[in-house]
Design goal:
With 431 residues, the protein is mainly α. The protein has 3 domains: 24-121, no CATH class; 165-296, no CATH class; 314-423, no CATH class. 64% of the residues lie in helices and 0% in strands. The chain has 20 helices and no strands. It has helices at 24-34, 40-61, 67-89, 93-102, 105-121, 139-145, 150-176, 181-187, 191-204, 214-227, 243-263, 270-273, 279-283, 290-309, 320-326, 332-344, 354-367, 371-381, 387-405, 414-423. Helix 1 (24-34) packs across helix 3 (67-89), helix 3 (67-89) packs across helix 4 and helix 16 (332-344) crosses helix 19. It is elongated, with a radius of gyration of 31 Å.
Length: 431
């Protein structure tokens, strides 16, 4: 219901709260006229400017020769003026009326458009791989947002402002440890994951001068476990941190403290924790360094060989059964697929169709599964040098996936199938 700006609320116990649905521009103009803030000549000027503005806006978004385009242009123009007035005045009709008196109508329309352009220039996503580099607002986005409400604008502005703050905080942490932004972009790093790792790594290695990769993180974590370093009760922040970065970092402190305690838990092998598709790697960004990972692999292999020379380690090769079932596929996705099939009691494969994956989930939910069968298979048939890492891989998968696989509320199997597509080898589009 529309009411005049000066209408008093109905009195007494039966008072009604009336909603004024007019655009803020209209309310401010009426208020200004009634209270003598906006003179007659200014009203006449607005009436003269408005048609010109409508034509300009219609031309920008389409054509000024079609009536529907002109009608949408009128709506956009009123929205733009209203947006600037309400933002500039804080919703105060008196201040908004003064702005209409002191500034031209078209200038308020442009000011509203500029606000939308600044909104659109803010990042929509905290993933560095999706940051826009064009520097020019998308006309399509302007077309959409010029018709949205002020409440939508404020909600989106707050959301994008938080994202922008997270990105700037991530850049600060990355620059501090000489991590180039191109690496973040190439890896599709999430700003929040960069901030969390920056906080965690500062606690783990305060004197570090480089961003961690999987090998350096594993070495540091293993050393901390050997020394019996306790989980932190508080998380120290790096020195020289700007206030705006600290504000973002504080929002992650509680989660990082909890994860710090989990990383020190010896029940989880470091390599299982650092699985490329695991939950830890999704939440904490590690720099890709293939050479370091190859070096780490060879160093570990050398250590096993030295231990084998001393008779301390069983380096038995993989059995023929292992070779037959894996068919030479030693990647994590294929192995987890095989282990899951063993645990579920279905035909043993290293790749599943979508239909087979769904059938496996239904069987697990109906009859249960036996993860220990996969463990026994690994101990019996896997190469001695790799059994530890395979067991850790399987344990990590079981711990992280059991709740989803056994969740009967997921009636359409959407969460379970998404899990298998992410962690196992499910053929795309195959049924």
């Amino acid at each position: 219901m529309s009411v005049s700006d000066s209408s008093p609320a109905a009195g007494g116990a039966t008072a009604l709260s009336l909603h004024d649905g007019r655009p803020f521009f209209e309310k401010a103009l009426v208020h200004g006229i009634r209270h003598g803030i906006v003179p007659t000549e200014r009203v006449e000027a607005i009436a003269a400017e408005a048609p010109k503005g409508m034509v300009q806006i219609a031309r920008y978004f389409g054509t000024e020769f079609l009536r529907p385009d002109l009608e949408r242009a009128r709506e956009r123009m009123v929205n733009l003026v209203s947006l600037d007035l309400i933002e500039d005045s804080g919703g105060d009709l008196g201040r908004a009326a003064q702005s209409l008196r002191e500034h031209s109508f078209l200038s308020r329309s442009k000011a509203g458009s500029d606000r939308l352009r600044r909104l659109i220039a803010l990042p929509q996503n905290s993933n560095f791989g999706f940051l826009s580099t064009t520097g020019e607002p998308d006309v399509q986005q302007l077309s959409v947002w010029s018709l949205r409400s002020h409440a939508d604008y404020r909600a989106e502005l707050e959301r994008r402002t938080r994202i922008a703050a997270a990105i700037e905080a991530a850049r600060w942490f990355a620059e501090r440890l000489d991590l180039d932004e191109n690496a973040l972009e190439a890896a599709g790093a999430e700003a929040e994951a960069v901030v969390r790792m920056g906080l965690l790594w500062h606690w783990m290695h305060p004197a570090a001068e480089a961003w961690p990769h999987a090998v350096s993180f594993e070495k540091r974590l293993s050393a901390m476990r050997r020394k019996g370093i306790p989980a932190p009760s508080r998380l120290p922040l790096p020195g020289g941190m700007p206030a705006e970065v600290a504000a973002v970092a504080q929002g992650h402190v509680a989660a990082v403290l909890a994860d710090a305690a989990r990383t020190l838990d010896a029940a989880t092998a470091p390599r299982a924790l650092l699985r490329p598709m695991g939950s830890f790697r999704a939440r904490y960004f590690l720099e890709d360094d293939p050479l370091a990972e190859v070096d780490g692999y060879h160093q570990g292999l050398d250590a096993l060989l030295e231990a084998g020379d001393d008779g301390e380690t069983d380096l038995a090769p993989a059995s023929r059964t292992w070779e037959r079932l894996t068919q030479g596929h030693e990647d994590e996705h294929s192995l987890l697929t095989l282990f899951l099939c063993l645990a579920a009691g279905v035909p043993r494969k290293t790749v599943l169709t979508e239909k087979a994956a769904a059938s496996l989930v239904r069987r697990v939910r109906k009859q249960g599964w036996q993860p220990e069968l996969a463990e026994a298979f690994i101990r019996t048939h896997a190469a001695g040098a790799r059994q530890g890492s395979y067991l850790a891989l399987w344990k990590s998968f079981v711990d992280e996936s059991a709740a989803t696989l056994l969740n009967h509320r997921d009636e359409r199997l959407e969460e379970a199938r998404a899990l298998l597509r992410r962690e196992c080898h499910v053929a795309d589009g195959a049924e």
